[in-house]
Amino acid sequence: MKSTAPTAPTEPAIVVRDLHKHFSGKPALRGVSLQVQRGEMVALLGASGSGKSTLLRHLSGLHKADAGSTSQVQMQGRPVQAGGKLAPDLRRTRARVATIFQQFNLVDRLPVMTNVLAGALHRLPLWRVLLARFPAEEVNRALAALGRVGIEACAWQRASTLSGGQQQRAAISRALVQGAEIVLADEPIASLDPESSRRVMGLLAELNRELGVTVLVSLHQIDYAFAYCPRTVALRQGRVVYDGPTEGLTAERLHELYGTQLGELLAAPAPAPQPAPHQAPPLPASGPRTPALHAA
Ligand SMILES: Nc1ncnc2c1ncn2[C@@H]1O[C@H](COP(=O)(O)OP(=O)(O)OP(=O)(O)O)[C@@H](O)[C@H]1O
Ligand SMILES: [Mg+2]
C-alpha cells in the first residue's frame, strides 16, 4: 500500500517494551512486551478489563505510559512513545496506522464518501479538507475502496443510515484510502451480528493477506481468533499470559489462563462458514484464508 515516508523495512511493525500504565494509582498494564512482524494478523484476546483497549491506545499514542517508566512503543521502526513521552513526529507515524473501533467512529451526519475520504486527509492541502473539495482521483480511490468492501451503493448516504456491519466496512474502506500499513482494530465485531462479524473479520484478513497490512485485532471471542488469526496474544489483568499460535490455546490451557473468566471468552457463537466471496474458514485455522476480494 502507499506509504507517506521512508520506513525501516527490516523493523517489526509493532514493538512494545515493558509497557506500564496506571490509572489513578491502579495498574492497567503491568510490563507488557510484544512484537508483531510486518504482515502478521494477530488477535489480542482477553476478558473485560484485561487491558486490550488500553494497550491499543498506547500503540497509537492516544495514551501515554507511566511517566518515568522504561516503557517503549515503536511502529514501523519509528518511535511512538518512550518513558511516558510521545515522539515529536508522531503525526507521520500515525498516517501509516488506521484504528477501527467497536463503535464505528464515523461522523454520522456526513456522507459515507466524506468519512472514507477522511483517510486521505494526511496527503491533502488544508483548504481542500476545509471546503470538502476532494480531487477526482481521491473520490475514485474512495469509490474503489467502498467497492472492495461491497458497499459502493451506499457512498452518498449519510453514515447514520448504514447498518453497524456496513459502518464497520466503511471504516475499513477509510483504512484502504489512507494506505494504512497497520490496522489496529479494537473489538471491531463486538456490536455486530454473527454474519456481519464474519464479513468484517474476513475483510481484515483479506487486507492482511492480499495487501500485506499488519493487523492487530482485539477480541473477546476466542472462536474468531481461531478462525482468522494465526497468532494470539492473550492478556489477563494487564499482563501477557500467552503469546503464540492460536491453535496452541487448548481448552486446558485456556482454563489454566482464565479460570472463571473463560465463559466470557467462549460466549460468542462460533463463526460458521458463510457464502462466497467472504467465506470464513472452518475452525481451528492456522492462518487467514478467506477467498478473494471483490474487484475494486
Ligand atoms: N481512561 C481510564 N481511566 C481510568 N481507568 C481506566 C481507563 N481506561 C481503562 N481503565 C481501566 O484499565 C483497565 C483495563 O481497561 P481496558 O478498557 O483496557 O480493558 P479491555 O480489555 O479493553 O476491556 P473490555 O473488553 O471491556 O473493552 C480496567 O480496569 C479499566 O477500568
Ligand atoms: Mg476494550
Walk me through the structure.
The structure is a single chain. The protein is 30% helix and 22% strand. It has 296 residues and is of the alpha/beta class. The chain has a single domain (38-61, 92-283), classed as Rossmann fold, CATH 3.40.50. Helix 5 (136-148) crosses helix 6 (164-178). The two termini are 14 Å apart. The relative contact order is 0.17. The model is unreliable at 273-296 (pLDDT under 50).
Number of domains: 1
Could you tell me the mean pLDDT?
86
Give me the side-by-side strand order of the main sheet: 7-8-9-3-10-11
- Helix content class: 25-40%
CA-based gyration radius: 19 Å
Summarize the biggest pleated sheet.
6 strands, mixed
Order of helices and strands: EEEHEEEHEHHHHEHEHEEHH
Shape: globular
Number of helices, where a helix is a run of at least 4 consecutive DSSP H or I residues: 10
Q: Mind telling me the CATH class? A: Alpha Beta
CATH superfamily: P-loop containing nucleotide triphosphate hydrolases
CATH topology descriptor: Rossmann fold
CATH architecture tag: 3-Layer(aba) Sandwich
CA-to-CA gap between the ends?
A: 14 Å
Strand content: 15-25%
Structural class: alpha/beta
Poorly predicted regions = 273-296
